[in-house]
Specification:
Length: 423
């Protein structure tokens, strides 16, 4: 037992956990938490689902991720490329979340749009740095464990911030809730200062125009030259469409079924949190037993099927046991899948372009689902109802499952891996 637990207690794994805590909370602030806030202020469904566009910053981050790889921050840069960017982007997240705290959706919805987008941009930039820091800090044999620890941290950060926001908002208002949650940006900043610059960080050697061009073009050229790279990107694009659509609309379902803030905090946030942790634990075990490919294929199936539980909940109506079962299944599947998906995406990176390549991969992973959520989800729900909507999200998971199965059979999964999996 001690031997099994030792990798989770190594310095690099613990660092992955703490940076994960800070990575999760900005997403919660403009995801489920903002959905609940807007719904309680009487904003209509089409407007609420359109706020998913704020999350598109996480998909567009690839366009400025090269800056994190190639631009040295004056003065702060003496602490190291990754550490200095952790401090700068963390401070930007704190400022953006506090700004969102003091806008009023009922009085000026446009100000909320701007504030939410700013949180999205700051949070996405923080994600770029955190992902690069995690991958470069972990050794190749730690990628699986480190991915699990990062997922533990992400879920704790998002769940704790979401629960704290609901509880504080119910007693002191939403402004106080958002200000309190801004403190969740600190763990990653402190981790960077304590652990220091990653040992595996590979700085770009050129200076001036050559360095800028290599920072921008190098990550894409290197990745796309790999065997099967285009098929890998296609898989990344389509594998999570159904899951993203389902997750970004859950708070609308809960609100329409009449769940209170306290019920959501207990069942969606708290109970879901423990189910997610259980899924991560099982994911770590099965990753070791089954290997990357088979464990990832199983994860894709579970994440797709889990959406049916919300179709069942919509058919049943307001039921706390039903909510617990649906949330439990979905979070277990997400926890399990998160371990193997993040490990696979991390292993695809070249250490010379860690920030830009992981940003490309992670951004592509949910872009289609977020675009569909912001443009069509509200209308689809009003047209076909919640039951049929969540059945549709399950059907949309099939292309990703079939494509990865083909990639396994063709040997493309192993051939497309980067240096992060070997050096």
């Amino acid at each position: 037992m001690l031997a099994a637990l030792r990798p989770y207690l190594e310095r690099e794994s613990l660092a992955a956990f703490f940076v994960g805590v800070s990575s999760g909370f900005p997403y919660a602030m403009i995801g489920a938490t903002l959905t609940t806030r807007l719904a309680q202020d009487g904003i209509d469904k089409r407007t609420i689902t359109a706020f998913a566009l704020a999350l598109l910053a996480y998909n567009l981050k690839v366009f400025w991720a090269w800056i994190v790889d190639g631009v040295r921050i004056p003065l702060l840069g003496r602490l190291g490329q990754r550490v200095s960017w952790l401090l700068l982007s963390g401070a930007a997240v704190i400022a953006a979340v506090i700004n969102l705290a003091f806008v009023d959706p009922a009085a000026d919805i446009q100000s909320v749009v701007v504030a939410a987008v700013l949180v999205g941009i700051a949070g996405a930039t923080y994600d770029i740095v955190i992902d690069a820091y995690r991958i470069e800090t972990l050794k190749p044999y730690q990628l699986g464990v480190g991915s699990g620890m990062s997922q533990y941290g992400w879920r704790i950060g998002s769940a704790a911030a979401g629960a704290l926001a609901l509880v504080v908002a119910g007693r002191m208002g939403w402004a106080a809730a958002y200000v309190a949650c801004a403190a969740f940006a600190l763990p990653a900043m402190l981790t960077g200062l304590i652990v220091g610059e990653p040992a595996r960080h590979v700085a770009i050697g050129e200076r001036g125009v050559a360095a800028v061009w290599r920072s921008i073009a190098g990550p894409f050229v290197e990745f796309l030259r790999r065997n099967g790279a285009w098929l890998v990107l296609l898989f990344v694009l389509v594998h999570k469409i159904g899951d993203t659509l389902a997750n970004l609309t859950l708070r609308l379902l809960f609100n329409d079924l009449g769940y209170s803030n306290d019920e959501i905090a207990v069942y969606d946030v708290a109970f879901g949190f423990w189910a997610f942790l259980a899924g991560i634990f099982v994911g770590g075990v099965l990753y070791t037993k089954l290997g990357l490919k088979r464990s990832l294929l199983l994860a894709l199936v579970l994440m797709g099927v889990s959406n049916l539980s919300f179709a069942a909940l919509a058919a049943i109506g307001h039921s706390n046991p039903g909510l617990a079962a649906a949330i439990g299944f979905e979070n277990f599947a997400s926890g399990y899948g998160g371990v193997v998906v993040v490990a696979y995406f991390s292993a695809l990176c070249n250490l010379q372009f860690t920030a830009a390549q992981y940003a490309l991969i992670s951004a592509a992973a949910s872009v289609l689902g977020r675009v569909m959520t912001s443009t069509t989800a509200g209308g689809l729900i009003q047209w076909m109802g919640y039951v049929n909507f969540y059945v549709l999200t399950t059907v949309l998971a099939l292309p990703g499952i079939l494509l990865f199965w083909y990639m396994m059979r063709a040997g493309m999964v192993d051939r497309a891996l980067g240096t992060a999996a070997r050096e």
